Every structure is written in structure tokens, then in C-alpha cells.
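ARCHIVE CARD
Drawer: 12
Card no.: 0347
Subject: one protein chain, sequence and derived structure
Cross-reference: see card 0346
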Amino acid sequence: MGYQIKNIKFLQSETDWRKCPTEHFPEFAFIGRSNVGKSSLINMLAKQKSLAKTSSKPGKTQTINHFEVDKRWYLVDLPGYGYASISKTMREKWAKMIDNYLNFRENLQIVFVLVDIRLEPQQIDVDFINALGEKGLPFSLIFTKADKLSKKRGEENVKVFCKKLLESWEELPPFFISSGMDGQGRDEILDYIDQINESYYQHENHIENEE
């Protein structure tokens, strides 16, 4: 077992990235289509049942939600995309909120894009991933709900999704297979975050020493 979250607390919810917490910690954002299992994943990573509010109704997360982790990094729960049950005006409002956050949040290290492992590649996921590429934002994929189908079928579906991505990308981003129900993927995802944090703080210390 590698890095594990020891302390996590909710800080604030905002609709404007400029009102988000001071950018003195590296930041990791989680986003995906509605009902992809984002809240369950966040609760699984933190080993807390109700840290992020889960709901069967799409659109539960409507703000940029910051959690402080181990006084070392921020976990950010972003609203999803692809809602069919909300108005066009609200969709556009959420899209602009997310877009501004992604474009201007300087301490953002990685965007974790959550993808439902049970489904064939959804164009809305591919489009969002391609948009991140156009912005030059680093991202990783987390395939969720792996407990809902066999390991073999899950791996096959991941291959199909990766093949779809390779139509637009020369190489694939890091990806993880997870389950909010049984904890699959927790250690791998947290160790990955910890590695990035180590690099971040080594770089910061190097700059401070030079000054």
C-alpha cells in the first residue's frame, strides 16, 4: 500500500474560479458525464461514505467544490457535462464556469476525466478530451464502475475506447480502472497523485533555493 489520504476536509463551493481557494497547493480536478460515478469515486479515494454527495439524479454537482487534502493538495469536484435534463441556458452557464476554471486555474496539475467502463465510446467524452488537448491541459482517464461487469469485458471496453482516442491522439494518456464500490484503482490513483505532488514540491523548493 502506498500513499493514503489521512485528512480531507471540504473547503468551499464556488461558481466563479476567481473566488476559489488561494492557489498555494497543487490541484487535481475530477470531471465526467452525468452519473459517471464521480461522487462515489471521490468518496472511495477518501474512504469516506458521504464526503461528496451522491445522487441518482444527474446534475447533483453544480459548483466548483474544493477539498483540502493532508494540507498538501486540493481535490476539486467539478460539475459534469452532457446533461439532457437541464435547459440550454443552464448548460451554457455550467460550460463557461468549467471552461474558465480549466483555462485560468494556474495550480491545476491534472484533470481526471471519468469514463463509464460499461459503455461504448461516447462522442461527448471524446470531444471533451480533445478539447483538453487543444487547451494543452494535462489529463488522465479513470474508467469507473468496473465492478458492474467482468474483468475481461472491462479490459475489452477500455481497448475500444483507447482505439477511438488514437484516431485523434498519437499516444494515450495515463489511465486507471476503478470501482467506487470495492476500492479498485484507489492505490494506483493516489500514488499517481502523490508522484505529481512530489515533483511539484521539489520544483517549488528548487525555485525557493535559487531565490
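Annotation on reverse: Residues 55-59 have pLDDT under 50 and may be disordered. The helical segments are 38-46, 88-104, 123-135, 151-165, 186-210.
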